[in-house]
Amino acid sequence: LAGATSDCHMFDVASGVWNKLEPLGEPPSPRAAHAAAAVGNMVVVQGGIGPAGLATGDLHVLDLSPATPRWHRVVVPGPGPAARYAHVLALLGQRFLIVIGGNDGRNTLDDIWALDTATKPYAWLRVRAQGPLPAARMYAAAAARSDGLLLLSGGRDASSQPLADTYGLARHRDGRWEWAPAPGTAPSARYQHTAAFVDCRLHVVGGALGGGRLVDKDAELATLCTNAGTWAVSGDGGEGDDGGRQGDASVTARCRHAMAVCKGCMFVYGGLRGGVLLDDLLAGTDAKAETNEAGTLGIVGKASSPAWRAWQLARGGELPPEQMDIGAGMNAYGKGEGSPSTPDDPAVNAGVKSGGRPPPRPGSHTSTPGTEVRLHNRAVVVAAAADSGDHFGGLVRQLSIDQFENEARRVSMGTPSAQHSAQLSSPASASGSTPIMQRVRSMGGVHKAVLQHLLKPRGWEPPSDRSFILSAESISDLCDKAEAIFQDEKSVLQVRAPVKIFGDLHGQFVDLMRLFAEYGSPSTAGDINYIDYLFLGDYVDRGNHSLETLCLLLALKIEHPNNVHLIRGNHEASDINALFGFRTECVERLGEEQGIWVWQRFNQVFNWLPLAASIEGKILCMHGGIGRCISKVEQIEAVVRPVTMEGGGQLLMDLLWSDPTDNDGIEGLQPNARGPGLVTFGPDRVRDFCSNNNLSMLVRAHECVMDGFERFAQGHLITVFSATNYCGTANNAGAILVVGRDLLVVPKLIHPLPPTIKPGAESPGDEGGLLDDMWMSRINEERPPTPPRQRGGGNSARVAGAGSLAFF
User: Fold this and answer.
1) pLDDT tens digit string along 685-740?
2) Alpha helices in 234-354 (DSSP H)
3) Residue 406: in which H helix or E strand, if any?
4) Which residue in the list 193, 571, 716, 751 is annotated as catalytic?
5) Maximum Cα–Cα distance for the chain, whole Å?
6) Active site includes 571?
């Protein structure tokens, strides 16, 4: 250990250049056999052993965000993973730092510790996981799949024997931790090896057997497909400049090396072979994923090599990665998660195989005994700064619910009545989650390209030429896969808390990105592993980016079918979205023939959308309301899909079109200004419905409300609307509702952005100044939207316009 250092070197994959970093701050002591993990733009180092003995259990964090990196020492108070070496450290679900095993200088360890990086003050938690526990081990390897499944591979046990087992560790939504053996049989025991995920495939490289022996060459590079549950090996252990061998050893014959994945490409550096320190860099891809063979690695570490120049060329975008021939020693650059791809790529259009979808979630869930559904007395608000160049920046604050002007005025009109909240009395149960080793990670497909191009909460910009990223063929593939998932779902979804509820979006894609940016996004780098997303319909029409909004939501449904939920709104119907902008947008952006075909295909998918969602059996969510004819949830459950608006009859009209009366003082059924045959329903109907169905609350969308959310029926019904400044005239806030595990409902708001002005325009009123397209402006002028609640003179003014298209 006399040669142990605290040096830090960084390799730039874009330039192929190594640099020695000289960070500021207090560096960790010289050490070896330590563990490290990347957390955002930081590297966390823990434990190890050096010339002075075991390092402390403190965390050393290297922050790479500033121009000059800086070390920070983080002392976590309380019990935690004490001094140790030869352990593993991994980031699970982009949130939990996990420490497993190692050696404390006396014993080989089997403990597990977790630190929640999202909760302050930081504290280590000793994990008591269910399921069969892995044996104590050191020199193991661990890697986390992007959906929150960690795999622990191999290691050396307390009797110094190499291990060949693989275990999965996952944290359930109810806080339970669970171990499960991975399927299949590993091709070799090993320790002092590395492992990393590319998409759903775990790649294991190198390792030792003890006694100076390395893993046999036929098993040096092994790959576990966690979807199929099968192992594959690369018989030659990778390729080098001499055909895969370096003397009598293949390039992957090594132990004590390091491994990382960048843009779907695997990099392996250094290690030991026969007592000799190595300083080569290997790179390889998972190009054989479709055939379930192991990926191959080759030497590309020299910045002057043709292979590295090809890599640089691909990174620069001058040559499409799928066409790159990396030359001797490396396969074509693969399409791992986050790697570049284009909608026209055959690999993208091939899509997900029918067996690749996760199994459906169990049909029902129960919540904590005695928990009451209630609206939090404060709402979270993000106000955009009018003079800020960052449209997503703003002031975050919390306001009392009664401080909202429109909300307070609305509630004050109601007639007081006794609270009608039902207590949750069902006993707590197990989460009913899919067994952790049966979780299926989606492979490549059109939806991956959509997520890559559109799921950019702080970086998306609309195309200047109004083009769209997908062809009609790719949209068809996206629709096919989403429709297949909707076909397997019930008409009333069973959703578990916690969950975020989104109201009408109406093609206002910028607002969707703002909500994701401010309150978390449905990605593995966001919070999808810990909270569900529920969208209440009206994804299209009125706004300028219905295609982006709809395609992203469908892609999210394909990627996270058990965590992203979509139900139908009244604008998910061909007779409506033919009039209010969606058909026009499809034609304008895709051409007449292709646009009409795509519009029709989307409407076929709409007929399969679920119609309502039940959260923990206590909160029923729909788009419109209960109208005149809906008295039991079972009526909605009995609707057979696919269903058109005409085929759904009065029940579907009530569910998608009805509204509450103007205030709590107006009971019973009243005419609805939206059109003949439609009604508004009073607070008495809401209370009776909740009582008859053992519900505590209804949540619906459908109406623009000035504060983004609005209470009705003494809090037993909440309207949520997520699009700000609806149709450019309402000046309303947008909101989502966050339902916690304890069924506490917290509104979270964003305010409208100031108008965006084109360069050269003097004001938003100048012709050509607004970025909004003229075709959408004309539609909104010809068919103005329904006035926000409490605007325009109340119900009498609305009735005066009954039957007019203006109120749709």
Assistant:
1) 999 999 999 999 999 999 999 999 999 999 999 999 999 999 888 889 999 999 99
2) 306-315, 346-350
3) helix 405-412
4) 571
5) 90
6) yes
